[in-house]
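Standup notes, structure subgroup. Blocker cleared on the oxa(dethia)-CoA input:
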Amino acid sequence: MGAAIRSLGAYVPKRRMSNHEFEEFLDTSDEWIQSHTGIKFRHVASDDEAPSDLGRRAAEQALGRAGLSPDQLGMVLVATASGDHVGFPSTACIIQDKLGASNAAAMDLLVGCTGFVYGLETAKGLIASGAAEHILLVGSEVLTRIMDWEDRNTAVLFGDGAGAAVISHSNNGCGILDSFLRSDGSGARALAREAGGTRTPFRPGQTDRRELLLKMEGRLVYNFAVQVIVDTVTTILTRNRLTIDDVKYIVPHQANERIIEAAARRSRIPREKFFVNIAEYANTSAATIPIALNDLVEREMLEPGDLIVTAGFGAGLTFGGNLVRW
Ligand code: UT7
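Run returned:
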C-alpha cells in the first residue's frame, strides 16, 4: 500500500522581524545577512507560544483541507528540535491533546532539520504496516528561544514556524515513492546544545547560560550541507532512473540560500529547479520543508503528477530526501 500527502498547512507567528532590527544590538548588517544567507525576515513567537501552539494551527489548516476530523488520525508525528519540553512529554502528545485526536498514537522525531524528510518515510511505513490510515506529520519550531541572541554567527539565521501534512493511504501511483535517509553521528557536536541533557545537566551557578543554547560550527555544516544535498538528489534520481528534467522542483531544507546555490552549481542542476523561500522565514529547522511545500501549493505551482524531490540536512548529523509524485 502506498502513502501520499493529502493536504498541507502552515503557520508562522505574527511578529515579523527584519534584518535591520539586529543592527540595533549586534555587530551585523542587513547587507551581510542578505548577501551571506538570502534571509530578509524571520517570524518570532510571542512569549506564550510554544511549538505545540504553532504546530496545532498548521495541523488544523491541514486537517481542514483534507476534510478529516482529528479523531480520524491514527498517528501524530512531530519533528522538532525545540520541543515544548526537554525530553518528555513529547510535543506530539501535546498537539494530539490540543487537537482532540482521540484515536491517535503520538511521538516526536528528533532528527533536527531533516525531521520532515524522515517523517514522510516513517508515515509511509506506518501506513503500509496497517498501524494507521491517516497520519498527521508536523514540523514545528520555536528556535528563537534556544538561540543565543548575542551571537551574530547564529542569531541572524533562525526563525519560528510550523508546517503540517496529512498523509493517507494511496493506491494510484502518487505519493511518497522513495526515500533516501542517512546519518553521520561523528558530526554530532557540529550542531548541538551542550548542556541541559543528562550527560551535562544544568547545575545552578556552574552551567554557562550559553551551553544551554544552540551552537553551530557554521563552516563545517555549510560544507556538509552542500555535499549531502548533491548526494541526496543524485542518489534519488539515479536509483529511480530519472533525470532532472523529469522533476518539477527540488525542495531543499532552507538553511542558507548560498548552500542551495553551491549545491546547484556542483550538481549542474539549474538553480531555478530549487524552490527557495528563505527570505521570508529564515531557517525554521524541521518546519522549512513543509512550509515550502505549503507555499508551492498556495502559489499553485504544483499540478497532479508532478515529481518533486526533497533534500534535508541537519543536527545529528542527519540527511536525506524523498521522491514524491504529487
Ligand atoms: O539547518 C542546518 C543548520 N545551519 C546551517 O546549515 C548553516 C550552515 N552555515 C552557514 O550558513 C554559514 O557558514 C554561515 C551563514 C553561518 C556563515 O557564513 P560564512 O560565509 O561561512 O561566514 P564565515 O563563518 O566564514 O565567517 C566570515 C566572517 C567572520 O568574520 P572574520 O572572522 O572573517 O572576521 C564572521 O565573524 O563573517 C563574520 N560573521 C558576521 N558578520 C556580520 C558571521 N556572522 C556575521 C553576521 N554579521 N551576522
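Discussed briefly. The CA atoms of residues 78 and 92 lie 5 Å apart.
Next: hand off to the docking folks.
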